[in-house]
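Hey team,

Filing this mostly as a record. A colleague (T.K.) asked me to run one chain through the structure pipeline before their review meeting, and I want the input and output archived in the tracker in case anyone asks later how it was produced. No errors, nothing strange. Just documentation.

Input sequence:
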Amino acid sequence: MTPKKNPAFTKSLALCCIANRVKKMRMFSLTMLSVCFLISGCDKKENDDDQYGTNCKIIKNTINNSYEASVDYDLNNRIIEMNYTGSGNPAAKMTVVYNNNLAILDYYIGGALTMTTEATLNSAGNIIETNTTDSAGNDVINEFFTYNSDNKIIELRGTDFSSNITDTLTIEWNAGNATKILRTQGTILCDYYTGQTSSLKYGYGNVVLLIDRLDMDIATFYSNDFIKTYDINGVNPIHFSYEFNSDGKANKITTSSGGNSSTTVVKYECE
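Output structure:
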């Protein structure tokens, strides 16, 4: 089914925060949670009208004409920096440095370092274990990721050291889409516009999941098709709709839930 025009995205905090895992984990910016379905990227050739080919990643997202999220990549197509500006909030930034199978992520608000994550990666550049510390070096959260034979995440286990709470996320996949996400707080059901491959993809690996919005990010960026509905316990489900450029890439995302709606304009770079 091809997505139709219809309101959908979300107000930065109100909707994106639904089913937020362990908030302390990546709380380096409130509106930064808007990146749930915002960022992806591509290689070198930048184009404003998205007409340069099919090997693309999103490099910039403008939310409600007031908030901007941008992403930079290295020559190996890996995320190295993400920046968030606008909406009256302090500028936020995440930087990534790679060393063999390790990725070191630093999180900043207003130029001040707030957290650091050391992530161990598998051969596909995907996270298998993380340890996050605050700016004083205190342990904040530890995570373990498990994958199936298709390199799809089927379990995430995270422990918040400040509260001694362990949360486990398990994911069921159907035709390459994350259709059911089981969490301690409840069950998330996701529906998709089946048959239309999503253009909302990142570069190599999945370190983008270390920003904050894990369950929704998995459904949005790592499923094969465009997500249509994200529903946690049947309470104010989030509805997605898309507009497309002539290359078939989604360049506008609208979401709605509980009477709130928001729009994100997506800019790509393509080879």
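Quick notes for T.K.: The chain has one domain: 23-270. The longest strand covers residues 186-197.
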